[in-house]
Design brief:
By secondary structure, the protein is mainly α. The protein is built from seven helices and three strands; from the N terminus they run E-H-H-E-E-H-H-H-H-H. A hairpin with a 6-residue loop joins strand 2 and strand 3.
C-alpha cells in the first residue's frame, strides 16, 4: 500500500499530539511517521495488521499448494515474467529455482514473520539477471579467478 503525504505526519507531530495522530491512523488504517534522524515507521491498527498477516498466510499457502500438486511449478513459472520482467535473462532452470525460493521465502514471511528473506531472494535473482543481461559483464563474471582479492565493502 502506498502512502500519500496526506497519510504522513512527522515524529514531532506524534510527540505533540499523539491522540490526534492515533485517531487519524484509526480512520485511515495506518499513518506513516516520518523522522528526520531515523527511518520512518507506520502507526497501524492491530486488527488491520492481523488481517495483513492472514492475507499473506493465505497467499503463501495457496502457492505452496500449487507447488505440491505441480512440482515443476509450471503455473507459477509461467506467471513470473509478468511480475518480474527481468526473468527473461534467466535460464528455465534458474527461473524455476527463483520461483521455488520465492515461494519458500513468502511462506517464511507468513508463517515465521521473517519478512526480509523474500526481498533478499528477489534482489539476488535480479542481480543475476542484471549480470546476464549484459554479455560483456556475464562473460567477465564467468572467468576463473585466483588469489585473495582482499576485504570487500558492502554498499547499501
Amino acid at each position: 500500500m502506498s502512502t500519500s503525504n496526506a497519510d504522513a505526519v512527522t515524529f514531532s507531530d506524534l510527540s505533540r499530539n499523539p491522540r490526534a495522530v492515533a485517531e487519524r491512523a484509526a480512520r485511515l488504517g495506518r499513518v506513516r511517521i516520518t523522522h528526520r534522524d531515523a527511518p520512518d515507521f507506520y502507526l497501524t491498527a492491530a486488527d488491520r495488521e492481523d488481517q495483513r498477516g492472514q492475507t499473506l498466510a493465505t497467499a503463501s499457502r495457496l502457492f505452496l499448494a500449487l507447488l505440491k500438486h505441480d512440482p515443476t511449478a509450471r503455473t507459477l513459472v509461467v506467471a513470473m515474467p509478468e511480475v518480474f520482467p527481468w526473468v527473461r535473462h534467466l535460464t528455465s532452470d534458474e527461473l524455476r529455482s527463483f520461483t521455488l525460493e520465492l515461494v519458500e521465502a513468502l511462506s517464511d514471511a507468513a508463517e515465521l514473520d521473517v519478512d526480509v528473506t523474500a526481498q533478499e531472494v528477489i534482489a539476488g535473482w535480479r542481480a543475476t539477471a542484471r549480470i546476464k543481461a549484459d554479455p560483456a559483464h556475464h562473460a567477465q563474471a564467468r572467468q576463473a579467478t585466483s588469489g585473495d582479492f582482499g576485504p570487500v565493502e558492502v554498499s547499501a
